[in-house]
Amino acid sequence: MKIRVLGCGGSIGIPGEGTTSFLLDDDILIDAGTGVCNLTMAELEKIEHVFITHTHLDHICALPFLVDTVGVFRPRPLTVYASSASIQAFKNHIFNNFIWPDFTRIPAPDKGVMRYQEIHTEQSVTVGDRTVLPVEVEHTVHAFGFVADSGGQRWAFSGDTHRTDRFYEILNQMGNVSRLFIEAAFPDKEEWIADLSKHLCPSLLFSELEKLDPLCEVWISHLKPREYNAIREQLVSPAMPSRKVDLLAADMVFHF
């Protein structure tokens, strides 16, 4: 299993660093932020499955363009895996024929080039020889973290999250989770914004990581561009707990 970082930023403003999107092997997209724009046409055409953590714009904004670009040439529908709340948000607010066409009904009502598949917390989805487990996390809208497994080491992604417990319980119970990608959106001076928007800042992050098996590598995403340097300095500060974390960047590739 291979994970390619397409985008991991908390917004736009740093050239080359798109918003959240990860490519699992060649055919599974985890979130569809602006990082998807880094893919070539040939790479876009290989994507068969899109797993959505939640429907905030920085995690979904490339999905309408993806299906518009490759949809009519697809031999089978692009499958979008999401919670019932997220699917309803797509239907009501994005693919509603006002903001964007409803591609579940194009070119015909029974032959859409996109389809939804509802997923549920702690119920695995099998795609080929890989499984993806959604686990509900704490955010301002319904949101999942994901754990991907191809029979070897596991990879976990928190999505956007705040204080939560079950996600770490699942990771520790599963074992063999070699890397966790998790967010730190704001510096500690803006902890009040992190609390309001259900995100993490470095002090909250390290408090959360105390719940995690220490053998798991931790990689940080979703830094807000204007506060990027302040957040980075706090993540590596000697005053912080001894657990080492690393920062993600676009075009990084991880093998499992």
Walk me through what this model shows.
- There is one protein chain.
- By secondary structure, this protein is α/β, with parallel strands linked by helices.
- It has one domain (2-255): Metallo-beta-lactamase, Chain A, CATH 3.60.15.
- It has 8 helices and 15 strands.
- It has helices at 41-45, 57-60, 63-70, 84-94, 166-174, 191-197, 202-209, 228-235, and strands at residues 2-9, 18-19, 21-24, 28-30, 49-51, 78-82, 114-118, 125-127, 130-137, 143-149, 154-157, 177-183, 217-221, 246-247, 253-255.
- The strands form 2 sheets. Strands 1, 2, 3, 4, 5, 6, 7 and 15 form an 8-stranded mixed sheet that branches. A 7-stranded mixed sheet has the order 8-9-10-11-12-13-14, covered by helices on one side.
- The longest helix has 11 residues, at 84-94.
- The model has no long low-confidence stretch (mean pLDDT 95).
Secondary-structure blueprint:
Blueprint: E1 2-9, E2 18-19, E3 21-24, E4 28-30, H1 41-45, E5 49-51, H2 57-60, H3 63-70, E6 78-82, H4 84-94, E7 114-118, E8 125-127, E9 130-137, E10 143-149, E11 154-157, H5 166-174, E12 177-183, H6 191-197, H7 202-209, E13 217-221, H8 228-235, E14 246-247, E15 253-255
Parallel strand pairs: 1-2, 4-5, 5-6, 6-7, 11-12, 12-13, 13-14
Antiparallel strand pairs: 1-3, 1-15, 3-4, 8-9, 9-10, 10-11
State the assembly state of the protein chains: single chain
CATH class: Alpha Beta
Shape from CA axes? Answer: globular
Number of helices, where a helix is a run of at least 4 consecutive DSSP H or I residues: 8
Could you say what the CATH architecture is?
Answer: 4-Layer Sandwich
